[in-house]
Design brief:
3-stranded mixed β-sheet, 45% helix, Zinc Finger, Delta Prime, domain 3, 5-stranded parallel β-sheet, alpha/beta, Helicase, Ruva Protein, domain 3, single chain, 597 residues, Rossmann fold
């Protein structure tokens, strides 16, 4: 007996066997059970989602010898002949190959005749959007005067090309793409029924590759069986699809998170030996970045498409939320441009290097032992070090901001103003400047914090207090995430050699054990004695260094704006040319680099 492909062998033969599409099944079942039958149905959706399958099941429901119902017997002559594709009164038409009006009229001329063996004559027109305008006109005339014994079922992947006059005469159902979990579960049921060994990870990979199409996933399963010699394993599926396993994807993003450009290139070179599909691999990294963002935002409700949740949690701690968002956008743009590059590997590498080079507010400096990220504590590899192409790091900028408050001065836009008359030529007064450094909003005051701690009075044996914390943060040798932990926290209790920091819940990702340990080591080096450091979540009565920096920045910004509005030249431009000042273009002069002041 010849081999029958799985997609045909396991095509559903009743509504009960259909996976998914509950919104369509419910409407059809209720219509059949109550006898409220429409004369024309339109099934729309992408390939392999069940349009033709549902049409054939509907034809069985209408022509079953046991009566019209949503549960055909499957044993009578009509049911078996429809399953075998030889039922006389089920007329299947491929509109893609019969687009001419003469072909359409020839088919529709027989509509008036009664069914030969069944209860209803069912016309199934696949890819109906391929009809010509004349063919649609002929079909429209037929739909307007259908006999009681005729039902039309139209199927299309592009309903936008079907005239609205035809759409308005059909009961339309939009079949959705299958979720990967639904496809994987169906593949598992098929393999279990066939008594074939498989890996669940392999089925998940095939489901993702199916891109919402059950038929495509079934065809890939057939290919995997041939490739694996009758078994379905994760390694064979990955080799067959040119896919990269989950661990390698984590390795790439973790190298990006710590700014390890040489490591990224080395990993891509190792993957290149397997000839991966770089567009699909970049899509997998984008999906992993999405999962990372969900883990950072709502971990309690997230359903992650990964098996190694611990590494995902580590990645969520290692990457700042703004880095994840920017890398996601960079990945999308890189995938869009990948067909334009001469070699796919080059485009893939440039996308990852772009993620390292462009970071909101900068990144930790390369090679610094104190700038290693939380990735080191969440994957088997050794310690990691961040990288920065050059310039002042955010840590240095933050220290400079809290250590030396600057005078609030304003800068003016250098864009040319409308040219005044020859009698009056005022100097250019408004300048386009760089965006101000990112700041963190002030946390609410916790009334429950001890007033003694809030005022800075602590154990004299250890010179740490809320009042002196900003100066301490400026002086200690720490960078990266541990510095951010110090910037956003405030000492609330100092007892003996034990220091307790209060950290707002909004920054709880900074309370990772590795960050706390590195901050403790920096404080020990600064104080010259051993200490114990713990972090509690909650608001403190005193402002953190980051909050103080924000307040100073807001004050300087207000004074800068006031200076611009009070400037005589600006007022002259406003009066003479009806000019308007753009407040978001004003920056305090001291916030600008030296060459732009």
């Amino acid at each position: 007996m010849s081999y029958q492909v799985l997609a045909r062998k396991w095509r559903p033969r009743s509504f009960a066997e259909v996976a998914g599409q509950e919104h369509v099944l419910r409407a059809l079942i209720n219509a059949l059970d109550t006898g409220r039958l429409h004369h024309a149905y339109l099934f729309t959706g992408t390939r392999g989602v069940g349009k033709t399958t549902l049409a054939r099941i509907l034809a069985k429901c209408l022509n079953c010898e046991e009566g019209v119902s949503a549960t055909p017997c499957g044993r009578c002559r009509a049911c078996t002949e429809i399953d075998e594709g030889r039922f006389l009164d089920l007329i299947e038409i491929d509109a893609a190959s019969r687009t001419g009006v003469d072909d359409t009229r020839e088919l529709l001329d027989n509509v008036a005749y009664a069914p030969g063996v069944g209860r209803y004559k069912v016309y199934l027109i696949d890819e109906v959007h391929m009809f010509s305008r004349s063919s649609f006109n002929a079909l429209l005339k037929t739909l307007e005067e259908l006999p009681e014994h005729v039902k039309f079922v139209l199927a299309t992947t592009d309903p936008q090309k079907v005239p609205v006059t035809v759409l308005s005469r059909c009961l339309q159902f939009n079949l959705k793409r299958f979720p990967p979990s639904t496809i994987a579960n169906q593949l598992q049921r098929v393999l279990e029924a066939e008594s074939i060994a498989f890996d669940r990870v392999a089925l998940d990979t095939l489901a993702q590759a199916g891109e919402g199409s059950m038929r495509d996933a079934m065809s890939l399963l057939d290919q995997a069986l041939a490739f694996g010699g009758g078994a379905v394993s994760a390694d064979d599926v990955q080799r067959m699809l040119g896919a990269v396993d989950e661990s390698a994807r984590f390795d790439l993003l973790e190298a990006v998170a710590r700014g390890d450009a040489p490591g990224v290139l080395a990993k891509v070179a190792a993957l290149d030996d397997y000839a991966p599909d770089y567009e699909a691999l970049l899509g997998d990294l984008i999906s992993l970045l999405h999962a990372t963002s969900i883990q950072q935002s709502v971990p309690e409700v997230a359903e992650h498409p990964v098996s190694d949740l611990a590494r995902l949690q580590g990645l969520a701690l290692a990457m700042r939320p703004e880095d994840v968002q920017l890398n996601y956008q960079i990945g999308l743009m890189g995938r869009r441009d990948l067909p334009l590059v001469p070699v796919a590997r080059q485009g893939f590498e440039m996308t990852l290097l772009r993620m390292i080079a462009f970071r909101p507010g900068g990144a930790p400096e390369s090679g610094s032992a104190s700038a290693s990220s939380a990735v080191a504590d969440n994957q088997p590899a050794g310690s990691r070090a961040g990288s920065r192409a050059g310039g002042q790091s955010p840590a240095d900028q933050a220290r400079a901001a809290v250590a030396s408050p600057r005078r609030p001065a304003a800068t003016r836009n250098a864009d040319p103003a409308p040219k005044p008359s020859p009698n009056a030529q005022p100097e250019q007064a408004i300048s386009q400047t760089q965006e101000a450094p990112q700041t963190v909003g002030a946390a609410p005051v916790d009334a429950g914090v001890s007033s003694t701690v809030a005022s800075g009075a602590v154990d004299a044996a250890l010179p740490l207090s809320a009042d002196t914390w900003t100066e301490t943060v400026t002086a200690i040798a720490v960078k990266g995430m541990p510095l951010q932990l110090a910037m956003h926290s405030v000492p609330t209790q100092v007892v003996g050699d034990t220091v307790t920091l209060s950290l707002p819940e909004a920054h709880q990702h900074l309370a990772a054990a590795s960050f706390v340990e590195r901050l403790r080591a920096a404080l020990e080096a600064h104080l010259g004695r051993a200490i114990k450091l713990s972090v509690t979540l909650g608001a403190a009565a005193s402002a953190s260094p980051a909050q103080q920096h924000q307040r100073d920045a807001e004050s300087r910004q207000r004074e800068a704006e006031q200076a611009i509005y009070n400037d005589p030249v600006v007022q002259q431009l406003q009066n003479r040319f009806d000019a308007e000042v753009q407040p978001d273009s004003i920056r305090p002069l001291d916030d600008l680099p030296g060459d732009e002041r």
